[in-house]
């Protein structure tokens, strides 16, 4: 199977490795060369669509769109979110008249907005709060309406809280690991919200499962188990043999009591896919990689 992966970030890196192990012929189209990706890479700017569409000369059967701004500290309200949404719409329009059989786009749990219970794809209504989440939702609705009556299979997979190898060091888990190893003080801004932490290798497994099985168009990728930031910190301290730090609750803020967790009746989980990583095994993998 020929697969085009758009974007070369840390999720794409794990995804490409998985797809190649499964025997797929993979091409990555991204702005920058990634030395951790070993398949063919084509460098280019997705916002120059006339340049980008030339990649389809390679006749991919499946297109996986992972590209979007995720830079910590700016991505939630950056104006480039409009450009990514517009690109995604153009991608859907182009694929409508191509030989592509399946378009799979990675969405985000942020599309659900602030929730007080686990989210269920197809049932829980999106209520995006940030520009990032709103434009993701705009992209979903645009492509869904374009491909609704077509022969192209469309999948929108909302990724919950990803972590794994090659993650931006400014993200929470890499920051915590660094701080624990450096014996720096840690002050969590939120200890009451519950998040569905999912490894990139589980995300890659889920994407592979989606490609291989007939499923609803809107899906959630997560474990269905939620953990607070404090639980993540305590697990890391134990794995790094730093329990002598004695995490003090007074050093941390309560937060906003959000729930970003996949419902156990999620279409993906109901179809038989199961995450392989627990929080413990996932963090061990990150620490030893």
What is the element layout, followed by pairings?
Blueprint lengths: L1 E5 L3 H12 L3 E6 L9 E4 L5 H4 L9 E4 L14 H17 L5 E7 L22 H17 L5 E7 L1 E3 L8 H10 L12 E2 L1 E3 H13 L5 E4 L7 H11 L19 E2 L6 H4 L8 H10 L1
Parallel strand pairs: 1-2, 1-4, 2-3, 4-5, 5-6, 6-10, 7-9, 8-11
Short description, anyone?
The protein is α/β, with parallel strands linked by helices. Helices cover 34% and strands 16% of the residues. Strand 4, helix 3 and strand 5 (102-108) form a beta-alpha-beta unit.
Radius of gyration: 19 Å
Structural class per helix/strand content?
A: alpha/beta
**Which superfamily, in CATH terms, is the homologous superfamily of the largest domain?**
NAD(P)-binding Rossmann-like Domain
- Compressed to H and E, one letter per element, the order equals EHEEHEHEHEEHEEHEHEHH
What share of the residues does DSSP label as strand, in percent? Answer: 15-25%
Structure description:
- The chain has 289 residues and is of the alpha/beta class.
- It folds into two domains: 2-162 and 196-221, 3-Layer(aba) Sandwich (Rossmann fold); 168-195 and 225-288, UDP-galactose 4-epimerase, domain 1, CATH 3.90.25.10.
- Helix content is 34%, strand content 16%.
- The protein is globular, with a radius of gyration of 19 Å.
